[in-house]
Design a protein that fits this description.
heterodimer, A: mainly beta, 7-stranded mixed sheet, 4-stranded antiparallel sheet, 11 strands, about 0% helix, globular, B: mainly beta, 6-stranded mixed sheet
Chain lengths: ~110, ~120
């Protein structure tokens, strides 16, 4: 089954404690993205990747890092989380063959206290 | 830079009523346009997309959208809504010269509540 998986699904952490949210896709898609969803703000793109070792900033990259060492994986790293990063995070993948339709993961609800 | 506006933040309709959700974008070049739906507690799923060709696009579950280039609009329509259409709807644009079609901008979403 074609899918995007994220782990963990729920995470409560404290300010400053580094964390990583993993994302993996099994569709051999070149492109992957991270979004955060906040009430009233919709989805905002954090980072995207066009291929292995090729990443670029989206609209809200501050406080986040990503890496793309393998085509299927695109982890999101918060080096020093802060309460304003409390949000719902979605990973997505796509390809030209799918006319750039985004396939979304199930989401990770992060709370930073 | 591209942007997307969804003017209706919260819409309440009775079952069988007709639906039209507005979406306007700002970008002067080639775009791909999408409508996604998010049912309560779930991730986003594609309803329909416009890539090129016929500006009237039909999607799943009876939804359709019309791309009007002169108005920079991509409004979503459904002739008769059902209670199961209760969800949040997002318009999105993916512009051609923004990082190779990967800089995607979403609207702020429209919450649709259908009353039985």
């Amino acid at each position: 089954e074609a899918q995007v998986t994220q782990n963990p699904r729920y995470l409560i952490t404290v300010t400053g404690k580094k964390l990583t949210v993993t994302c993996s896709q099994n569709m051999n898609h070149e492109y992957m993205s991270w979004y955060r969803q906040d009430p009233g703000l919709g989805l905002r793109q954090i980072y995207y990747s066009m291929n292995v070792e090729v990443t670029d900033k989206g609209d809200v990259p501050e406080g986040y890092k990503v890496s793309r060492k393998e085509k299927r994986n695109f982890p999101l790293i918060l080096e020093s989380p802060s309460p304003n990063q409390t949000s719902l995070y979605f990973c997505a993948s796509t390809s030209p063959e799918s006319s750039y339709e985004q396939y979304f993961g199930p989401g990770t609800r992060l709370t930073v206290t | 830079a591209q942007s997307v506006s969804q003017h209706n933040h919260h819409v309440i309709l009775s079952e069988a009523a007709s639906l039209e959700l507005g979406c306007n974008y700002s970008y002067g070049g080639t775009v791909n346009l999408f409508w996604y739906v998010q049912y309560p507690g779930q991730h986003l799923q594609l309803l329909l997309k416009y890539f090129s060709g016929d500006p009237l696009v039909k999607g799943i579950k009876g939804f359709e959208a019309e791309f009007i280039k002169s108005k920079f609009s991509f409004n979503l329509r459904k002739p008769s809504v059902q209670w199961s259409d209760t969800a949040e709807y997002f318009c999105a644009v993916n512009a051609g010269d923004s990082g190779g079609y990967q800089k995607v901008t979403f609207g702020t979403g429209t919450k649709l509540q259908v009353i039985p």
